[in-house]
Design brief:
The protein is an alpha/beta fold. Helix content is 42%, strand content 15%. The strands form 2 sheets. A 7-stranded parallel beta sheet has the order 3-2-1-4-5-6-7, with helices on both faces. A 6-stranded parallel beta sheet has the order 10-9-8-11-12-13, sandwiched between helices. This is D-inositol 3-phosphate glycosyltransferase.
Amino acid sequence: MQLLFETFRRKKKHGMDFVALETIRALQQLDSVNEYFILVQPGEDRCLQETANFHIVEVQCPTYFLWEQVALPLSLAKIKPDLVHCTSNTAPLYCPYPLVLTLHDIIFLEKKKGNYRSLYQRLGRVYRRWVVPRVLPKCKLIITVSDFERAHITRSLSLNPDSIVTVHNGLSPAFSPSKKDRAVVDRYIPAESYLFFLGNTDPKKNTPNALKGYGLYLKRSKRQLPLLVADLEEPVIDALLARENLQEIKPYLCYPGYIPNKDLPYIYAGSFAFLYPSLRESFGLPLLEAMASGVPVVSSRTSAIPEVAGEGALLVDPTDPEAIARQLIELEESASLYEEQVQYGLHRASLFSWKQTAARVLEMYHQIKQV
């Protein structure tokens, strides 16, 4: 069987990029029989290696819209695959071959909760709102990443439940409590102990309430640990602090911008706790990465997070800064709670692997081929 795997190459990778990348790597370990063509945008980032049955095909196009809707169909006509898997919510409207779509979420079809500062985010939202409703009826199968999201998509779009399956994301073994390296950590924050927050300009990341909660924590904490904020530049932080009247917490913040994935295991493992109070997640991979690093997590009891984090996790109302601060203080003041969360997280994270994810995906491919 010949399979075409579409994944657009970006230098600064985020959630969907890593899901596609790690799934492909795991498939390379599992499957030596089927032939794969991995279509990517040309670039310096060589994050995948070809093997005997995995071929990397670079397809040049100036924009993602043209890449997916024009260049990708032209490549399909040359390769003539038995199956096409598009991995990041969208797919070409013209695809004369059996199509599998990974639909991570339908946040782009929901009412916006705040404004997207990034032009890339705004254009991406418009593109997905236009493409996804048109491409879903053409799919042989839709994969999503949690039972929460599967139920939500099925209900919201009135889909046949048999047309969509859950395949949980995995977890890389790179994340481990042993990943201690002060030299790496010092490049981002000059502190022996710190709290870690992965923010960006997406409203679902709940950055305002995370910072409000941190501000309350500073007023009550005896340690006043600094907060490392990834993926936000200083002008964005300054505007946010001014809008929320939180300028007094700025001396406690470190904001190095984007942190490459190769450094994240050391950042997690070096932190005291990970703050992840998202308003909406279809899965929530960072919370598993932190758990696997031996770090307690304060997260949200919303969307798919309880499904992934499990019953023993520290989950709060993400719209309540008081609850966020209170949980951070409890971790700081209770050594028994802290150790309990470390051990719980390590166990919970061990239940997820990219090998399991890839095996489930491969099973779906074979089922489609047999129909």
